[in-house]
Amino acid sequence: MNILVTGASKGIGKTIAENLKDIGNVYVTARNEKALKSFNNAGYCICDLSSEEDLIKLGDFIEDKNIDILINNAGEYIYNAIDETEISKLNHIIAVNFKAPIYLISRAVLHMKANKFGRIINIGSISGVMGEAYASLYSATKSGLIGLSKATGLELAEYGITVNTINPGWVDTDLGKNSIEDSEFSEQEILECIPQRRFVAPEEVAGLVKYLISNDAKGITGQSINLCAGLSVGI
C-alpha cells in the first residue's frame, strides 16, 4: 500500500509516518526539506499547503504515487480574539486546515475508486468538537473536517473507501506546548481540566490511525473519534 502523511516533519505527523512503515510505502510531505530527508521513507514532496501552486504539485504527487491511504495531518493553530482577526491569518488557516484536505482528497479518490479500496483520515482536534475560546479560527476549520468526513464517507462508501476524523485533545508535542504558551493558562491549569490529568501521547494517535486503516476497521466510516483523555466528556 502507498501511504501519504502531511505535516510529517515533526509531532503527530512524524510519529504516524514512523508507525506505518511496516504496512506499506510511506511518503511524507511538509515545508521542512531537511526534516523530510532525515526520515527513512519511500519519498517526499516539499509543500507549503497554504500555497495553491504547491498544493497542486502535491496533488500531482498523489496521483503519480497511486496513494491508497491519505492522512491529512498538517494543521496550523492561531490563538486570538475573534475581533482581532486579520484577513491574512484567516486565509492562511483556512487554506492549511480545511482547503488543503478537501483538495488532496479530491486528487486521491480517483485511484482509490478504481482500486475499490482507500483509507482517508483527517486529524481534527477536540477544539473542533467542543469549541475553544480565543481559537475560533482553529476550532471552525477543525470542525469543518468532521462534516467533510461525514459527507465524503457517505459518498465514497460504495467504493470500499473509508473516511474518518480523529480529534486529539492536548497532545504532548511542540504544537501542543506552543499553544499553551499562546494561551492565558498554565500547563498545570490545563492538566487540571483533563479528566485523566495527562496529555495524550503522539503514539496513541498513531495507534488509532493504524487501526482505522486496517481491515478490521473497514466498517468504520464517516466517524468523528475523540482521543482526548476524557476532555470531551466534561470536568
Structure in words:
With about 240 residues, the chain is an alpha/beta fold. It is built from 9 helices and 7 strands, in the order E-H-E-H-E-H-E-H-E-H-H-E-H-H-H-E. Strands 3-2-1-4-5-6-7 form a 7-stranded parallel sheet, with helices on both faces. Helix 1 packs across helix 9, helix 3 runs parallel beside helix 4 and helix 4 packs parallel to helix 6. The mean pLDDT is about 95.
Could you name the ranges where pLDDT drops below 50 across 5 or more consecutive residues? none
Task: Work out the radius of gyration.
Answer: 17 Å
What's the helix-strand series? EHEHEHEHEHHEHHHE
Shape: globular
- Main sheet overview: 7 strands, parallel
| First and last CA, distance | 41 Å
The averaged pLDDT comes out at: 93
Helix content: 40-55%
What portion of residues belong to β-strands? 15-25%
Total count of helical runs of at least 4 residues: 9
Walk across the major sheet and give the strand order.
3-2-1-4-5-6-7
The chain-level structural class is alpha/beta
The beta-strand count equals: 7
Topology:
Elements: E1 2-6, H1 11-19, E2 25-30, H2 33-38, E3 43-46, H3 52-64, E4 69-72, H4 87-115, E5 118-123, H5 127-130, H6 136-156, E6 161-168, H7 174-182, H8 187-191, H9 202-212, E7 224-227
Parallel strand pairs: 1-2, 1-4, 2-3, 4-5, 5-6, 6-7
Helix pairs in contact: 1-9, 3-4, 4-6
Defining traits:
alpha/beta, 235 residues, 9 helices, 7-stranded parallel sheet
